[in-house]
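Entry for the shared binder. Reason: the reviewer on the internal report wants the predicted structure included alongside the sequence.
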Amino acid sequence: MFNILTYNNISPAGLTKLPSERYKISSQIDNPDAILVRSYNLHSQPIPESLKAIGRAGAGVNNIPVEEYSRRGIPVFYAPGANSNAVAELTIGGMLLASRNIAAALDFVSSLEGDEETINDLIERHKKHFVGFELSGKTLGVLGLGAIGVKVANAAVALGLNVIGFDPFMSLENAWQLSSSAVPAASIDDLISRADLISLHVPLNDHTKNLLNKTHIDRIKKGSTLLNFSRAGVVDENAVLAALDSGQLHAYVCDFPMPALLNHSRTILLPHLGASTAEAEDNCSVMVADQVREFLENGSIRHAVNFPEVVVPPCAEGVVRLCIANKNIPNILGQITSALGEAGLNILDLLNKSRGDFAYTLINIDANAPLGTMQRIRAIDGVLSTRVI
C-alpha cells in the first residue's frame, strides 16, 4: 500500500488513476510515499523521511524546493503541456482585451447612470476614448516556444497575425507542431524590435529572472503590447512601468498582479487564471498521477524536473529491481555493481542515465539483495536514495 499526501484539492480525474486497493490518499498522512500538490508552498515544509516522489499538478515548480528534493534523491514530477490549451486561449483573450481596450470600456459602461437617452448620449461622446486596433496584419513575437508558446503562435496565425518566435532550446516535438507560417527571430532584441505584440512563455528560473530587462524594454517598438503569462519575475517590473508611463508600451497584460502595477491605466491584470479551467486541472492531475504511479510501481521517471527520463516496463515475475538516485560523479556505478557481484547476485538488466549533477540507475537482479548489500550501496559516497521493487 502506497500513502499519498495531498496539499491541495487535486482533481478526482487524477486521483482515480491511483486504485484504492494499492493507494491511500489523504491530506492527513504522516509517512507519505508521495506528495501531490498544486500551488501550495512547500519551501517551509519538512521533507518526510518516507518520501519517494512529489507530483506538481501544473507546469511550474516555483513552490517546490527542487534542489533540496534533488539532494535527497526525490524526483519532482510536473505536468508540462497539460494546461497549455488553457493558457494559450487566455493569452489570445489578453490580446483582444488590450487591442480593443475592452477592460477600460467595461469599466466605463459599469459607471454609467441615468435613463436610456442619457446613457446613449454618454456612450456616443466617450466611445472615441476606447478606439483600438485590429490584430489581423500585426506582428506577434512569441518568446518561448514550448507547448504553450507554439499553441499561441498557431492560434495567432489563424487570426491573421504575422508571427515571429525565439527559443534557442526549442524541442523537436514542438518544432513539428509549430505553423510553417511562423518565422524565427535571431535574438530577443530582434524579436522585440519587430513585434507589435510580445507574448512571454518561458519558465521562471535563475536564467530567466528579469529576462526582459530595461535594455530590452527600451528597444520595444513604440506602442507595442506586452503579454506575460509566464511568471511575474521574468520581466523588470520597474522598466515596464516606465514604458507604460512614457507610452512606449500601449499596454501590459499580466496574469500575476504585483502591487506597483495595480490601478495603472495601461495594465490589464488577471488573478493567475492561466490554468484555471476544469479541463486543465483534470489534465494536470491525470498526468502527474500517472507519473507518480509509474515511478512507485515500476521505477520509471517521466517528466521530472530534476532527474533524467528513464522509462521501463514493469518487472517480470521473479525479477527484483533496484532504483538508485545518485550524484553524477565517477565510479558510483562500478561500486554498485561490485557490491551486487560480491553478494552473488546476477544482473539481468541495467539502465543508467544522467541529467546535470544527478543520475538515476535501474538494475534488475535475479534475487532479493541481502540487507547488508543494500546498506553497503546506500553508504556509497554520492548515492542519494535507494529503493527495491
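Summary line for the report: The radius of gyration is 25 Å.
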